[in-house]
Amino acid sequence: MSEALAGNEVKAPPVSRFVDASVPFIEEEQDVRIFFNWKTLIPLASLGFVLILHKVIPTNSAYRVKELPYFSGLLYVLLGLYGFLAVISVFIPKRRISLAYKSWFLGTAFLLLGAYDLITIKLNLVPSLYFPAPERIVHVFIKDWFFLLRCLVYSLRLLLSGFFLGAFVGVLTGTLIGWSQRWNYWVMPFIRIVGPIPSTAWIPIALVVFFKATDAALFLIALGVWFPTTILTSSGILNVRKTYFEVSSTLGASNLRNILSIALPAAAPNIFAGLFNGTSASFLTLMAAEMIGCKFGIGWYINWKRETLAYSSVYAALIVIAITFSLLINLQFKIRNRVLSWQKGTIRW
Asked: From the CB of residue 20, how many other CB atoms can be counted at a distance below 10 Å?
């Protein structure tokens, strides 16, 4: 018996993962593994390359505008920020995967920023009046940040008011024409005639009908959100299986209960799609309305600076609009993902 066991390796039984509560727990040292992805350094390499070009290549002698140090400062800030993110990504796998996935796009974006710096202040290939150097645009953010913020808050207040008004009326109208044949008969022809007309085409009439330009802008924004929300809400309700309503009615549910518990939840994906389309339309309408009739706001700011040939301020305001619109769209996606969490696994988001 002993000879038979001599040639075989005797393995110790596995240690149980359960620990007796009466025995003091001794924490074992854990091996902390550090992983590194070289792709996280691509944005840093692009920023370093752009900074070197900006420092080495002299300013073109034909560039008559006073040179400012703000672009170099921006590059240093970005280098510090993405250097910190690269270090953090070593210890956080989720952050490492996200940063590595976006690395090529970010690196290309920084290179394009450096290319714009070259063709403006370094090579002077385009008119500096209409294509200001990056440092002039950064200077606007430093000098006029508070005024830009006030204009943005004013525009957001007008935008959100019109958006929620149009979304509410759009969901209500879409529910009525999707649920009731009578409403569909009388309202749908009107929607097909009036709805496709762009909201900006109603600006001359809205300015005459409403006493204030802000009220006209509110109406136009709501109109731009109302049409896609109405169409997609009604389409979502019409596509719900009738058997669901029949079974629910057999169990004693009223029409209101069927709408709230079956029709609207089933049409929720279409409703969110209509709201996304309405958001784009509302931004376009807001900019057009503020440029024509309103006396304040980010659209008014762009028109004012364009008339005074301050195109660096125009570019700065466009950047503010792009960032704000992106944040609002991302917020809507997060809300949709939370509300429609039951769709995960059945529909690719």
From this structure: 8
The C-alpha atoms of residue 316 and residue 325 are separated, in whole angstroms, by 14
* Residue-level pLDDT at 246: 76
Contact between 153 and 164 under an 8 Å Cβ cutoff? The reply is no
The span from the CA of 341 to the CA of 272, in Å, is: 13
Rounded Cα distance between 331 and 319, Å, is 18
**CA-based torsion, 72, 78, 79, 80: positive or negative:** positive
Tens digits of residue pLDDT in 171-199: 999 999 989 888 888 888 888 888 888 88
Q: Measured on CA atoms in the order 138, 142, 145, 147, is the torsion positive or negative?
A: negative
Distance of alpha carbon 46 from alpha carbon 83, whole angstroms: 12
| CB-CB neighbours of 272 under 10 Å | 20
How would DSSP label each residue in 278-329? HHHHHHHHHHHHHHHT-SSSHHHHHHHHHHTT-HHHHHHHHHHHHHHHHHHH
pLDDT of 227-236, one tens digit each?
A: 999 999 999 8
Cα 289-290-293 angle, rounded to 5 deg: 75
What is the DSSP code (8-state) at residue 342? G
